[in-house]
Each structure stands twice: as C-alpha cells, then as structure tokens.
Amino acid sequence: MKQQFQGTEGSHDWQHVERVWRTACHLQEIEGGDRIVVQLAALLHDISDHKLNGGELNAGGRVAKELLLQLGGSDQVAEQVAAIVDGVSFKGARVADEVSTLEGQIVQDADRLDAMGAIGIARAFAFGGARHRSLYDPAVAPQLHQTFESYAKAQGDTINHFHEKLLLLKDRLHTPTAQRIGEHRHAVMVKFLEDFHSEWDLRF
Ligand code: ADP
Ligand code: NI
Asked: How far is the CA of 32 from the centre of ligand 1 (A)?
C-alpha cells in the first residue's frame, strides 16, 4: 500500500492510510472485534477507490480479496476484508450505509474521523486543489445526493463538500469511542466554516 500511494496528493496518501490504520487499532482496543480483520481492512480500504481508480465504483473489495489470496490469506479472511472495503466509502447524503459487522463499523469510523476536524479540513482542500476546484462559489448550492453515481460525479467547490459530506459524518459514526472523538472534530469544522464565511463576507 505504501508503494501504491507513492506520489499521490495529500488527501489520499500513505499517511492517510496509516492514520486510518492507527485509529482503527485504537478503536478496536476499546470496542473489540477481530484485530487482524480490522487491520487488514484499514490498510486496504482505499486500494481501488473510485476517486483514485478512474471512476469504477465498488472495485475495492474485489481487488483487496485478490491481493490477500495471492499473499496466502484464507478465503474467510479475504471475504470479510472485501466486504468491509466495499462498504467503507461515503456514497451520498441520502444513500444508506451498509456496514453490519463491528469490524466494518470500526474501519468506517476510522476513515470518517480522518475526514473530519483539522486534518479533514486540510484533506478537503488538498483534494479540491489537486482537481483545480474553487475554494467556494456562492452561486452553487450544495446537493444532498440520492445515488452513489451522482455523488461520485459531483464537481462542486470544496466548501460545498462540507455540506454534502463532512458535516454529515458526525451522525454516521457507529462506535461510542468514535462518536466521542467525532464531537470535537465536528466542532472544529463548524468553527472553521463560521470563520471562512465571516472573512468572505468582510465581517471584520
Ligand atoms: P470515502 O471513501 O468515504 O470517500 P476517503 O478516505 O476515500 O473516504 O476520502 C474522502 C476524502 O476525500 C474526503 O474526506 C475529502 O477530504 C476528500 N474529498 C472527496 N471528495 C471531495 C470533494 N468533492 N471535495 C473536497 N474533498 C473531497
Ligand atoms: Ni480513506
């Protein structure tokens, strides 16, 4: 994974994967679940993300499973990890999450915590910058996407992304430990947006 993420921009780089891995380990220590499955799924969660693979939706599970089997992993572990990798991504404001196992919830929580707070803000602008998006365009309203397809095609400004995803994450965290950490990270984003709009509107 370290090799695969060489040279990628700051929103999705090896350090993101490593932070998700470490956060997932922390959550697992408190919340329980199978530590090996949690770690493998955290490490492989962005192995073929639609934002990085040219747009193919739901490819990650298949690619993760092939890799684990190739490395001598058991069918059972490869299947469990594949299901988590397929379920982990945010797919739109009005699209339900399908994560039923504790291990899946832990990995999704860890990935989402990394999209929130100070690091979440930094990652969002790194992502928008890499794709030459505006910081903010008051003429374009945020959309609450009904399908994964329309969410994946969205090209809006980066402030919109806070309303289309990042501010919704707090209420979609599963484990009590992640919910506690998420409260603070959510507040950091809310404060940032207040300051951003205050500066934009020249409220000195
Ligand atoms: P997910 O699989 O849930 O999308 P990832 O770990 O793959 O989670 O990365 C999501 C991160 O990518 C977001 O939290 C954000 O930092 C960045 N990102 C994705 N789409 C956008 C966007 N349209 N504008 C700004 N940042 C974005
Ligand atoms: Ni991720």
From this structure: 27
